[in-house]
C-alpha cells in the first residue's frame, strides 16, 4: 500500500506545533515491507531547506484563476529523513521564512493544486491520500469534483482534523481559483456563506479522523461553527489518539537534554536538567518547578497565566518557567511579571526546540489548562520524561491523564479552565511534591506508560484497508 500524507508542516522540516510532530512520525511508523508512507509539503525558506540540498523531479506551471505560477517538485538529495518527503516549491507564494501568515488562501491553494497536478503525472497513483487540517482541505473536494482530477475519483482519501478552530475560510469571490468543477456542487465548498476548506473536506473526504476519541465527541457540541456538520457526518468520523515518536522523545538518548536518564536513573538525570534550567533562568532549585510549553492562545488557557502565576508565586513555594509565544497581550503581561518574582519565575518568549526538551526533562510539573485540546502531545512527552502533567480534563488530555485521586491515577486533573481551578490544581501538586516517596513513585510509573505510535499507526492502516475494500 502506498500512502501520501499532504501537510503544511512536518518535523524536522518545518514545525509550528503538534501537526509537525504527527506528520513527522506517523509515516515512519506506517512504513513496513508492505507499506510505503510518504509526505508532500510546501518548500519554505527555513533552516532545514538552507542546510540541505534538493533536486527537482518535476517542473511545471500551475493556474490559480488567471494567474500562472512556476512550480517544482523537489526531493532531498541525501536522505536525512526516515521516509520520503516531496516538496512543492512555488517560489512566488510558498518560499517564505514562515509557515503561516495572515492570509494564506492563495499560498495553500497553490500548494494543493501543484500537489495534485504533479500526482497526475506520477506513474503510480497512491492507494490512499491522507490530508491534514484545513490547509489541505480542498483536496478531498477537488478529487471528487474538479474535472481535471477525474483520474483520482476512486482513490480513497482521509482527512485528519488536528484542530477545528482554524478552518481556512475565504470569500466566494475567490471560487475561480479552484480548478473548474460542476458549479451545481458549489454548496460543498460553503459553510455559513463563505468557502470553508475544513467544512468542504468534512463533506467530501471518505473518512474523517480526529486526533483523540474525546475530541471527536466534543466537536459535535463545540467545533467553531461546524458542530451540526460533524454530527451529520458522524458515521464517517472516528477518533484515533496520536502517539509520540519514542525515538525522538526518549530521555535515554535525547541529544538536546543536559543529562540522559532512564527510569532507574531519573532522580539524578531529572535533577541535572532541573539544575541547568534553574541556573539558566535564575530559579530556585529547591522549589518544585512548574512549566508551560506552547502557543500562547486562548485555546491553551494561557490568557489566565498572568493572574494564576501572580497568585501562585505570591505564596513563594514554587518556581515557574514558561516557553511560548502568541498573543502579544499575554506575552507582555508575562514579561511584566518578571521583576516581581526574580528567582522564582521566568519566561522565554519565543520558539526553542532544544529548550522544550530540557524543560520536559527538568520540570517537576507541566501545566496544560487548555480550553480545547484535540489531543495534546506535550502531556505525553512530559509523561515519558517523568514530569507530572496538570491538565484540564478535555479532549486528548481526558483520554491520556488520570487524576491521582482515581484508581491507577498519575496526574492532576481539573474540570474547568478557570483561575481558581488551575490555582487549586497547583496547590494539590505542591502537596504531592512534599510527599517525595509518593511523588517519585508516580514519576517512575508515568515514564513506563506506552504512548508510542505503534498502536495508532496500525489503526490508521486498518482504516485505510477498510476504504480500499469498500472501493472494490
Ligand atoms: N515555544 C515553543 N518552543 C518549542 N516547542 C514548542 C513551542 N510551542 C510548542 N512547542 C512544541 O509544539 C508541539 C505542540 O504540540 P501540541 O499537541 O500541544 O500542539 P498544537 O496545539 O500545536 O497542535 C494541534 O495538533 C496536535 C497534533 O495532532 C494536537 O495534539 C493538539 O491538540 C492540536 O491543538 C510540542 O512538540 C511542543 O513541545
UniProtKB/TrEMBL annotation:
InterPro entries: Glyco_trans_1, GS/SS, Starch_synth_cat_dom
Keywords of the record: Glycogen biosynthesis, Glycosyltransferase, Transferase
Signal peptide as annotated in the record: none
The Starch synthase catalytic domain, residue ranges: 3-231
Biological processes annotated in GO: glycogen biosynthetic process
Keyword Transferase: yes
Catalytic activity, reaction form: [(1->4)-alpha-D-glucosyl](n) + ADP-alpha-D-glucose = [(1->4)-alpha-D-glucosyl](n+1) + ADP + H(+)
Keyword set includes Glycosyltransferase: yes
Recorded metabolic or biological pathway in which this protein acts: Glycan biosynthesis; glycogen biosynthesis
Domain of life: Bacteria
GO molecular function ontology, one term from the record: alpha-1,4-glucan glucosyltransferase (UDP-glucose donor) activity
Pfam families on file: Glyco_transf_5, Glycos_transf_1
Residues given in the record as ADP-alpha-D-glucose binding sites: 15
EC number(s) from the headed UniProt entry: 2.4.1.21
Stretches assigned to the Glycosyl transferase family domain: 282-433
Family to which the UniProt record says this protein belongs: Belongs to the glycosyltransferase 1 family. Bacterial/plant glycogen synthase subfamily.
HAMAP family: Glycogen_synth
Record-linked PANTHER family: ALPHA AMYLASE DOMAIN-CONTAINING PROTEIN, GRANULE-BOUND STARCH SYNTHASE 1, CHLOROPLASTIC/AMYLOPLASTIC
Function statement: Synthesizes alpha-1,4-glucan chains using ADP-glucose.
Protein name (record): Glycogen synthase
Protein source organism: Aestuariibaculum suncheonense
Amino acid at each position: 500500500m502506498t500512502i501520501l500524507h499532504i501537510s503544511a508542516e512536518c518535523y524536522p522540516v518545518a514545525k509550528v506545533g503538534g501537526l509537525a510532530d504527527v506528520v513527522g512520525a506517523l509515516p515512519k511508523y506506517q512504513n513496513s515491507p508492505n507499506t510505503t508512507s510518504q509526505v508532500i509539503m510546501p518548500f519554505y525558506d527555513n533552516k532545514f531547506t538552507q542546510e540541505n540540498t534538493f533536486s527537482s523531479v518535476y517542473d511545471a506551471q500551475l493556474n490559480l484563476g488567471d494567474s500562472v505560477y512556476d512550480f517544482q517538485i523537489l526531493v532531498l538529495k541525501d536522505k536525512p529523513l526516515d521516509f520520503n518527503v516531496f516538496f512543492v516549491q512555488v517560489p512566488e507564494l510558498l518560499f517564505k521564512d514562515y509557515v503561516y501568515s495572515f492570509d494564506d488562501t492563495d499560498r495553500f491553494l497553490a500548494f494543493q493544486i501543484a500537489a495534485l497536478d504533479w500526482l497526475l503525472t506520477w506513474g503510480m497513483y497512491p492507494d490512499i491520500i491522507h490530508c491534514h487540517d484545513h490547509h489541505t482541505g480542498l483536496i478531498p473536494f477537488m478529487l471528487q469534483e474538479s474535472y481535471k482530477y477525474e483520474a483520482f475519483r476512486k482513490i480513497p482519501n482521509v482527512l485528519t482534523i488536528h484542530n477545528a478552530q482554524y478552518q481556512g475560510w475565504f470569500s466566494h469571490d475567490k471560487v475561480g481559483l479552484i480548478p473548474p468543477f460542476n458549479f451545481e456542487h458549489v454548496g460543498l465548498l460553503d459553510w455559513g456563506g463563505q468557502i470553508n476548506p475544513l467544512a468542504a473536506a468534512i463533506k467530501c473526504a471518505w473518512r474523517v479522523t480526529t486526533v483523540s476519541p474525546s475530541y471527536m465527541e466534543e466537536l459535535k457540541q463545540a467545533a467553531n461553527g461546524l458542530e451540526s456538520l460533524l454530527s451529520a457526518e458522524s458515521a464517517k468520523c472516528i477518533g484515533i489518539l496520536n502517539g509520540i515518536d519514542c525515538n525522538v522523545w526518549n530521555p535515554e538518548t535525547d541529544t538536546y537534554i543536559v543529562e540522559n536518564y532512564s527510569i532507574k536513573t531519573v532522580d539524578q538525570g531529572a535533577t541535572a536538567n532541573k539544575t541547568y534550567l534553574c541556573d539558566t533562568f535564575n530559579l530556585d532549585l529547591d522549589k518544585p518547578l512548574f512549566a508551560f510549553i506552547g502557543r500562547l492562545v486562548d485555546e491553551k488557557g494561557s490568557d489566565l497565566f498572568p493572574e494564576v502565576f501572580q497568585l501562585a508565586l505570591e505564596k513563594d513555594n514554587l518556581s515557574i518557567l514558561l516557553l511560548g509565544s502568541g498573543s502579544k497581550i499575554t506575552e507582555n503581561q508575562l514579561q511584566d511579571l518578571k521583576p516581581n518574582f526574580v528567582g522564582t519565575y521566568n519566561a522565554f518568549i519565543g520558539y526553542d526546540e532544544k529548550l522544550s526538551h530540557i524543560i520536559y526533562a527538568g520540570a517537576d510539573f507541566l501545566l496544560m489548562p487548555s480550553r480545547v485540546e484535540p489531543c495534546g502531545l506535550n502531556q505525553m512527552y512530559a509523561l515519558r520524561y517523568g514530569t507530572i502533567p496538570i491538565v484540564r480534563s478535555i479532549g486528548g488530555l481526558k483520554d491520556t491523564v488520570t487524576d491521582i485521586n482515581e484508581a491507577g491515577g498519575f496526574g492532576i486533573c481539573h474540570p474547568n479552565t478557570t483561575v481558581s481551578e488551575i490555582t487549586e490544581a497547583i496547590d494539590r501538586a505542591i502537596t504531592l511534591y512534599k510527599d517525595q516517596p509518593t511523588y517519585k513513585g508516580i514519576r517512575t510509573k508515568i515514564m513506563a506508560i506506552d504512548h508510542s505510535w505503534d498502536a495508532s499507526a496500525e489503526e490508521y492502516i486498518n482504516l485505510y484497508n477498510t476504504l480500499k475494500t469498500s472501493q472494490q
